[in-house]
Amino acid sequence: MVIGLALAGCGEPKTQAASSGQPVRVEAATLGEYQPVADISGEVDARIQTDLGFRVGGKIISRNVDVGSHVHKGDVLMQLDNSEQLSDVAIAEASLRSAQADLKQKNLAFDRYQALISAHAIAQQVLDQAQQDLATAQGSLQSAEAQLATARDALSYTSLKADSDGIITARNVEIGAVVTAAQAALTIAHDGPRDAVFDVYEAFFLEGEPSKDVVVSSISNPNRKVTASIRETAPVIDAKTGTIHVKLKLPDDTDWALGTPVIGAFRAPAKTGITLPWSAISSDNGAPAVWVVDPNSKKATLRPVKIALYRLGDFIVSDGLKTGDLVVTDGVKLVRPDQVLDWKGR
């Protein structure tokens, strides 16, 4: 009997130790503002990009540039067969010389008739006819000059010239092809300001326009970041991709080459929610939940929550918690229902 009592007495410290609370760390839920961010890939494009085409039709006989060539304003990029236009210019020049000769003759005749009419050697009707012939010759000369200018313009149109300094980004025709007037032959990206262009998925716009400023970084050098502003948003959704085309205005001193792949951090309109670290999340029959401590009983209850956004290192709770709730953030896996907790605030 004495031995049994002694053993019973030795077991008392273990019972006291088991009754102490489970140590955990808690954090008071605080409502704050956050902005969902979507990292979307895009590329650098010229702000001004135009298609170049001949103003007359014909057969291409030469090409002086290729895709990637840097050109200057006025450079001849392609040439059409201009034999027909050269013939038209020769005919117009001959017509002009004929009109000039005819006008000279009509001028001499008019001057002679004016001298004869003063001597009453001819009738007034003859002078009037000479004056009419002179006016007709003057009109013919003006017409011949206009026809020659038109023929020369048509000849110049057989040379496709760069309309600005820039880089050739596309070639749509080859030597030997027969093109029509205004058919796009080359595409030129003008030197100067650059844009970053993105195809943003439709769902990102459901809750409103994103923030005007977007942080852009190149994929090859993520540490180099610039702040660009949204310059243009397409008014319609691309039916094939379900995306919206967005152009950002890059700073003027940005030296990224055309086609540089970039990442844009688009920020959605601001929202409110409760931010908790990853260590606070638990599960209630497969649904997200957190342990909430009752400060009076020091016991925790598993409470289902609605998560609005998962982020790197934390998550945003949009429903299921209220400001001031004590949420277990460390020691979650050790918490059990109706278990007394020894909690400390963060």
From TrEMBL:
Annotated Multidrug resistance protein MdtA-like barrel-sandwich hybrid domain residues: 51-188
GO molecular function annotations of the record: efflux transmembrane transporter activity
Coiled-coil features, chain-numbered ranges: 127-154
SUPFAM superfamilies per the UniProt record, alphabetical: HlyD-like secretion proteins
Compartment(s) of residence: Cell envelope
InterPro entries to which the protein is assigned, alphabetical: MdtA-like_BSH (IPR058625), MdtA-like_C (IPR058627), MdtA-like_HH (IPR058624), RND_pump_MFP (IPR006143)
Keywords, ordered alphabetically: Coiled coil, Transport
Domain Multidrug resistance protein MdtA-like alpha-helical hairpin: 91-158
Any single GO CC term annotated in Swiss-Prot or TrEMBL for this entry: efflux pump complex
Primary localization class, coarse: other
Domain Multidrug resistance protein MdtA-like C-terminal permuted SH3 span(s) in chain numbering: 274-333
Family: Belongs to the membrane fusion protein (MFP) (TC 8.A.1) family.
UniProt-recorded name of the protein: Efflux transporter periplasmic adaptor subunit
